[in-house]
Amino acid sequence: MKARVLWVEKSKFLGESGSGHTLVMDGAPENGGENLGPRPMEALLVGMGGCTAYDVVHILKKGRHDIRGCELVLEAERAETDPKVFTRIHIRYLVSGKGLTDAVVKRAVDLSAEKYCSASIMLGKTAEITHDYEIVEV
């Protein structure tokens, strides 16, 4: 896997993924940025959310469960001093579908957290990661 990051101006950077997709990252106005994109650490948190959401959806689909939606809300705390690593991350999964049981959703979330989500397992080296989920019948 490869990526490129190009400094554009002020606190603005363009990140390009190996698959050719571009992400604008920018700093807060009080730090010389123009607020034109997420901060790099926000992008990291969103990436972790995408990684685990992908796992949960894939696991449920592979098990032939009728999943219709998956939304994650992530909340993170960072260290007060440099390096300001994530110290705590909580993930709330809102999983919707027909006939989803507590057991199958819990299994999918646990498998992602413990085995498949490289991003959350890596971030778990510095942060306490917790999760919960809610099942919405549609």
TrEMBL record:
<dbReference type="InterPro" id="IPR015946">
    <property type="entry name" value="KH_dom-like_a/b"/>
</dbReference>
<protein>
    <submittedName>
        <fullName>OsmC family protein</fullName>
    </submittedName>
</protein>
<dbReference type="InterPro" id="IPR036102">
    <property type="entry name" value="OsmC/Ohrsf"/>
</dbReference>
<dbReference type="Pfam" id="PF02566">
    <property type="entry name" value="OsmC"/>
</dbReference>
<dbReference type="InterPro" id="IPR003718">
    <property type="entry name" value="OsmC/Ohr_fam"/>
</dbReference>
